[in-house]
Each structure stands twice: as C-alpha cells, then as structure tokens.
Amino acid sequence: MKELFGLKSFQQILFWLFLLGIIIGVFLTLYFINPDKFRFILLLPSLPVLYFISKGLYKNSNLFFMDLKSITTKS
Length: 75
Description:
Elements: H1 2-6, H2 8-33, H3 47-74
Helix pairs in contact: 2-3
C-alpha cells in the first residue's frame, strides 16, 4: 500500500475519484432530502464537471495500470 501512495498516477486518480464522490454525494443528498422536487433537469449543470472528471480519470488510468503492473511484477 505504501508503494501505491508513492505513485503520482495514483494520487491523481484519487483526486478525480474524490471529486466524483463529492458530486454523487451531493446528488444523493438532494434526492433524499426532498425526492418530490428532485428532477433530472438538475443534473444538466453538472454535466461539464462530470465530463472533466471522466476525462481526468481516463487520462490517468493508463499510467496507473502500468505503474500497478510494475509494482506487482516486482513483488
């Protein structure tokens, strides 16, 4: 686990996953507070944010899996 936290690609993926978790948490909170007034139209302003999060995850995932493969082959 120490090797994973030392990887720059893992740190970048954690950042994007953290942002994704915040977005999902906000929507779940809004839904559970007042499900009658929650509309899917509310999701539209978050689409650009979700686009940049998915773009960041996709860009860093290749580096992360290559680094992870090198760690597992060393073990």
